[in-house]
Design a protein that fits this description.
Layout (H helix, E strand, L loop, with lengths): L3 E6 L3 E6 L2 E6 L2 H13 L7 E5 L2 E5 L4 E2 L11 H15 L11 H18 L4 H11 L9 E3 L8 E4 L2 E5 L6 E3 L1 H9 L6 H8 L5 H21 L10 H6 L3
Antiparallel strand pairs: 1-2, 2-3, 3-5, 4-5, 6-8, 7-10, 8-9
GO molecular function: transferase activity
Organism: Paractinoplanes brasiliensis
Protein name: Phosphotransferase family enzyme
């Protein structure tokens, strides 16, 4: 009999794996509805939906291996990263989904609140927080909305050799800033940014991507600490903040 493994679990949602089936349980069924719709709209390979219940979504596992994990060198080839870049460009040029993601004011307010918490927590030097908040301001500018994945972590992309074969976890997909997608995908993997952009192909402001690295790391740190994850692991969020320049 296949064992049940917990992929991730917190107060809002949980993902379980049973053999080749993933069960996504969400306290808000509207998020699951939106994820199903996003996968149907996205011009990329996505998990096959097996069945849907009010608070549960069952999807099939995708083939291949993850592009990498945060904190470790990516085992994928430069060609695989370029293929992912080309696919992300295709997503960003697709027709917009009908819903809008977090806007500039909302992101700025969250960033400032998280910086205030970090300053009071003592987990990072105040000078490091202030430097990253300054750099983060470069990302906080108007953008042309694109169809974005919204949580484009390296673990959400699966490749087989040099080919992209699956993209998972579409719950945050919306209209948003395409450079945030590129930043999340390369967070902690700056050395693969050129490979990704070789496939993406557009003129990209790398300074904005770097700024989104600071935004992402500053806003995620408290949640990670409060949910049993360690952003101070080598190559993870705190190292990204320390590398800010």
């Amino acid at each position: 009999m296949d064992e049940v493994s917990v992929v991730v679990a917190h107060s809002e949602r949980a993902t379980l794996r049973v053999g080749d089936v993933f069960l996504k349980v969400d306290g808000d069924p509207r998020r699951l509805d939106r994820e199903v719709e996003a996968m149907a709209l996205a011009p990329l390979p996505t998990p096959r939906v097996l069945w849907r219940r009010p608070n549960v979504l069952a999807v099939a596992a995708v083939p291949g291996m993850a592009l990498g994990v945060l904190g470790e060198p990516s085992p994928a080839s430069p060609a695989a990263w370029a293929a992912v870049g080309a696919a992300v460009r295709q997503l960003h040029e697709a027709p917009l989904p009908p819903w809008i993601g977090p806007g500039l004011d909302e992101i700025t307010a969250e960033l400032d609140a998280e910086c205030e918490w970090l300053m009071g927590s003592g987990v990072l030097p105040p000078s490091l927080i202030r430097r990253n908040r300054e750099v983060a301001g470069i990302a906080l500018r108007p953008w042309k909305p694109a169809f974005v994945h919204g949580d484009m972590q390296i673990t959400h992309f699966f490749v087989d050799g040099d080919q992209l074969v699956g993209v998972i976890d579409w719950s945050e997909a919306a209209q948003g800033d395409p450079l945030l997608d590129l930043a999340v995908l390369t967070l902690g993997h700056e050395e693969r940014l050129d490979d990704l952009l070789a496939g993406y192909g557009a003129d990209v402001d790398v300074d904005v991507i770097r700024a989104w690295w600071s935004v992402r790391s500053l806003t995620a740190s408290r949640w990670l600490l409060e949910h049993g994850f360690d952003p101070n692991e080598p190559g993870c969020e705190f190292d990204v903040l320390r590398a800010c320049r």
